[in-house]
């Protein structure tokens, strides 16, 4: 088990009852990265034969937010009907896989890993979300086994100031890179086309709430929530489920939307309540007027955005498992 740096001690706030769990490391580690055939890993990045790096530069520590970075999303609640979907389609899941100890023994997810090997501890493991017959290569990802009932796969890390991507559809950076933005598509872990079979945890490092903060557990979140630039001023969905660790699901009824292009990842409607962005139970990654596509403040999660001021952060992590 690699040593997590001291600043990452997780605390759960959703039930106002903190509980310590382990966190993924910010350190760059070549053991986490599977490079292409013509590449080698150097300092946590895949380098091609001509010296090119197949990874985004670390922009999180040097970006200075614009003057309006602390100004919150507008509270008006008016939107247009959502675009029509073809409906939920269930797809056949791949084989759950092996114990994750080697590339050729990759598990489909940390959830499958824990189900087949109940003594598995929190650590980095080889994960192949679409199975050995799928086009996606196995990658080493962090598995959080101590939070809730375990089985949580870390699928993304967004660094402060970096450009926010379509987390549902797109790969980003080199998976597992500690202090760079990276992501594995959420769709690979879902068995439906809308993604509403997933549970999702949003955690944040280096915020006003401490070294590492873990928000509520979300469920029934539509894939549109993770697609920046899409469905602007349109309804994303009619609500979601949320719960505390080991708790029962509660339904939050709300006409969720993406208020403007500065809202990138968004599970929110209104300022307060279970879907609120101003210290409520919603969730928004917010950009600026000049750079709406970048991550300049964090809102909601029952911790951030009170007083109409978003929170600066070091990194935001996404964890998933199937419901």
Question: Can you tag this structure with a few keywords?
Answer:
globular; eleven-stranded mixed sheet; 1 helix; 323 residues; 28% strand; 16 strands; three-stranded antiparallel sheet; single chain; mainly beta
Which structural class matches the secondary elements? mainly beta
Straight-line distance between termini = 28 Å
Give the helix tally: 1
- Determine the mean pLDDT: 80
User: What shape does the CA trace take?
Assistant: globular
Determine Rg (CA atoms, Å).
Answer: 19 Å
Poorly predicted tracts of residues: 1-21, 49-86
Percentage of helical residues?
under 10%
Written overview of the protein:
- The chain has 323 residues and is an all-beta fold.
- The chain has one domain.
- It is 2% helix and 28% strand.
- It is built from one helix and 16 strands.
- The strands form three sheets. Strands 1, 2, 5, 6, 7, 8, 9, 10, 11, 12 and 16 form an eleven-stranded mixed beta sheet that branches. A three-stranded antiparallel beta sheet has the order 13-14-15, with no helix packed on it.
- A hairpin with a 2-residue loop joins β3 (39-42) and β4.
- The radius of gyration is 19 Å and the shape is globular.
- The two termini are 28 Å apart.
């Amino acid at each position: 088990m690699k040593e997590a740096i001291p600043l990452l001690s997780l605390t759960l706030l959703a039930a106002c009852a903190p509980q310590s769990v382990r966190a993924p490391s910010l350190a760059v580690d070549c053991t986490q990265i599977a490079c292409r055939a013509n590449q080698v890993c150097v300092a946590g990045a895949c380098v091609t034969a001509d010296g090119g790096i197949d990874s985004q530069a670390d922009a999180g520590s040097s970006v200075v937010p614009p003057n309006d970075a602390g100004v919150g999303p507008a509270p008006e609640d008016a939107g247009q009907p959502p675009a029509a979907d073809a409906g939920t389609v269930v797809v056949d899941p791949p084989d759950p896989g092996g114990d994750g100890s080697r590339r050729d023994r990759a598990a489909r997810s940390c959830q499958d890993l824990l189900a087949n090997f109940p003594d598995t501890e929190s650590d980095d493991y080889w994960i192949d979300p679409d199975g050995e017959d799928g086009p996606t290569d196995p990658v080493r990802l962090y598995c959080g086994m101590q939070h809730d009932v375990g089985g949580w796969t870390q699928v993304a890390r967004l660094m402060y100031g970096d450009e926010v991507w379509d987390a549902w559809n797109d790969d980003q950076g080199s998976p597992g890179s500690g202090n760079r933005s990276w992501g594995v598509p959420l769709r690979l872990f879902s068995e439906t086309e809308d993604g509403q079979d997933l549970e999702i945890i949003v955690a944040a490092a280096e915020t006003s709430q401490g070294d590492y903060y873990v928000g509520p557990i979300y469920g029934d979140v539509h894939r549109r929530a993770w697609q920046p630039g899409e469905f602007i001023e349109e309804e994303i969905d009619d609500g979601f489920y949320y719960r505390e660790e080991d708790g029962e699901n509660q339904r939050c009824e709300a006409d969720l939307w993406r208020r403007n292009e500065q809202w990138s990842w968004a599970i929110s409607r209104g300022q307060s309540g279970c879907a609120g962005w101003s210290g409520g139970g919603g969730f928004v990654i917010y950009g600026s007027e000049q750079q709406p596509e970048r991550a300049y403040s964090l809102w909601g999660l029952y911790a951030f955005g009170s007083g109409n001021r978003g929170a600066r952060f070091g990194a935001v992590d996404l964890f998933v498992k199937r419901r």
